[in-house]
Design a protein that fits this description.
The chain is an alpha+beta fold and 118 residues long. The chain is built from four helices and five strands.
């Protein structure tokens, strides 16, 4: 099965900043890099990065645990670590699900409930 998905790269972001913000290519590159560096630096310090109407990036601490190698079945210790988690805003969720802004998820739940006979 062939998928028509595209991965957006840094170069794509540079190009978008160049075209849409009217920056030179060099300025667009510096701008995108500065934004990504600021986000990374904040996360490294354990801060939450909240972008209104987009979502939040946060760092979570995961405890060490025992995992299992799926090929061999041998238990392997997994060390404690920090992971970055992204939580999309309600506006983004609506956009990616093609819901018009301002529509209610509750209304959708009511429709599903009535369809299920509840």
């Amino acid at each position: 099965m062939t998928r028509n998905r595209k991965t957006v790269t840094r170069v794509d972001l540079y190009e978008a900043a160049y075209r849409k913000a009217g920056l030179s290519r060099a300025e667009a590159t510096l701008f995108v890099e500065a934004v990504l560096k600021e986000i990374t630096d904040c996360l490294e310090k354990g801060e939450t990065v909240k972008l209104s109407s987009f979502g939040s990036f946060m760092v979570r601490k995961k405890a060490g645990r025992l995992g299992r190698n799926p090929n061999t079945g041998i238990e392997v210790p997994i060390s404690p670590r920090r992971v970055v988690v992204f939580k999309p805003s309600a506006i983004m969720k609506q956009q990616i699900n093609s819901q018009p802004p301002g529509s209610s998820a509750v209304a959708g739940a009511e429709t599903r409930s009535s369809l299920a006979g509840g």
